[in-house]
Amino acid sequence: MTEPVNKPVTKQSPGNTRTESSVPAKGSLAAFKGLFPFLRPYRRQFILAGVALLFAAGATLAIPAAFKQMIDLGFGAAAGAHSIKNVDATFLALFGVATVLGIATAARFYMVSWLGERVTADIRSAVYGHVVNQSPEFFETTQTGEVLSRLTTDTTLIQAVVGTSISVALRNVLLFIGGLVMLFVTDARLTAIIFGLLIAVIVPIVLFGRRVRKLSRDSQDRIADASALAGEILNAMPTVQAYTHEHIEARRFGASVEGAFTAAMQRIRARSLLTMLAIVLVFGTIVFVLWLGAHAVLRGSMTGGELGQFILYASIVAGSIGALSEVMGEAQRAAGATERLLELLAARSSIRNPAHPQPLPQRTTGADRGAALALQDVTFAYPSRQDSAALSHVSLDIRPGETVAVVGPSGAGKTTLFQLLLRYYDPQAGAIRLDGVDIRDLDLHTLRDAIGIVPQDTVIFSADAMENIRYGRPDASDEEVIAVARLAAAHEFIERLPQGYRSFLGERGVRLSGGQRQRIAIARALLKNPPLLLLDEATSALDAESERLVQGALEAAMVGRTTVIIAHRLATVQRADRIVVMEDGQVVETGTHASLVAQGGIYANLAALQFHHIHIQA
Question: Is pTM beyond 0.85 here?
Answer without folding.
Answer: no
